[in-house]
Write a structure and sequence with these properties.
By secondary structure, this protein is mainly β. It folds into two domains: about 50 residues, no CATH class; about 210 residues, Fumarylacetoacetate hydrolase, domain 2 (Alpha-Beta Complex), CATH 3.90.850. The protein contains four helices and 19 strands. The longest helix has 11 residues. It is globular and about 55 Å long.
């Protein structure tokens, strides 16, 4: 099942995306509430001329670093080495859920950065509560998957990283996290073998497969849930796929560029870069 959020006259609503159209499912509430309620499908009504929103407003955002190839490429550009600990610990930083925007929304360009970059990621959405989850059962806690464009200010990131506090304003501003276009339920895709591509202005800039993830979503969930309850609607990002950022190419987006991120089985997340100076 593919689920989307759309803007209706009385607020956002949940819809199901099918081959013959988009259907309202008769649920009054957010996507997170829909997941918590066990995805109750009411009377389905075909709808037209909809504007899709981000498929959910996450309860939390955790972004991991699962792709060794991306790290090897990016760390050279940032003047750092891959720490040995990375190979054994699925480390993450926490993002701000209120910064999330959706498909076809303009990506704001903050005035404080000269090097705006995209990051192609696969994201998993937690579907039920759990604490101290084992790797063996962790995948049972995933509701579905979406695409995450983790927008970054690379020049700011280079200044923040040596402080060893993680990313701050390199990652956090209104509109810096893009999710969409839909959530695909976990039963419909094999998240361990999905082709991933990013295009800028119809030119292929990078491609990879989720099969190259060193850290798995099962490992991420087990690590994050130690002594901490996870809740439906929390989002776990894979980190950038190899070749999934401009940093790796030393090539950055410009005002007006159109970024398209495509992950097999999920779809295409498309956004235009706004003017600098927000």
């Amino acid at each position: 099942m593919k689920l989307v959020m759309y803007r209706a006259g009385q607020g956002p609503r949940v819809r199901v995306l099918e081959s013959d159209g988009i259907f309202d499912v008769g649920f009054n509430g957010t996507m997170v509430a829909f997941i918590e309620a066990g995805t109750p499908l009411g009377t389905r009504t075909l709808v037209h001329n909809t504007r899709l929103l981000a498929p959910l407003r996450p309860r939390s955002l955790r972004d991991f670093l699962a792709f060794e190839g991306h790290l090897k490429n990016a760390m050279v550009r940032l003047g750092r080495a891959i720490p040995n600990e990375w190979y054994s610990i699925p480390a993450f930083y926490k993002g701000m859920p209120d910064t999330v925007i959706g498909p076809d929304e303009e990506i704001p360009w903050p005035a404080y950065t000269e090097k705006l970059d995209y990051e192609l990621e696969l994201a998993a959405i937690i579907g039920r509560r759990g604490k101290n989850i084992s790797k063996e059962t962790a995948l049972d806690y995933i509701f579905g998957y979406t695409i995450w464009n983790d927008v970054s200010a690379r020049d700011v990131q280079a200044r923040e990283l040596p402080i060893n506090m993680g990313p701050g304003k390199a990652k956090d501003w209104d509109g810096s996290n893009v999710l969409g276009p839909c959530i695909v339920t976990a039963d419909e895709v094999d998240a361990g073998h999905l082709r991933m591509r990013v295009r800028v202005n119809d030119e292929l800039w990078g491609e990879d497969t989720s099969a190259h993830m060193h850290h798995t979503f099962a490992g991420m969930i087990a690590y994050a849930s130690q002594a901490q309850m996870l809740y439906p609607g929390e989002v776990f990002g894979s980190g950038t796929a190899t070749g999934g950022s401009g940093l790796e190419l030393d090539r950055f987006v410009q005002e007006g560029d159109v970024i398209e991120m495509e992950i097999e089985g999920i779809g295409i997340l498309r956004n235009r870069v706004g003017k600098k100076g927000v």
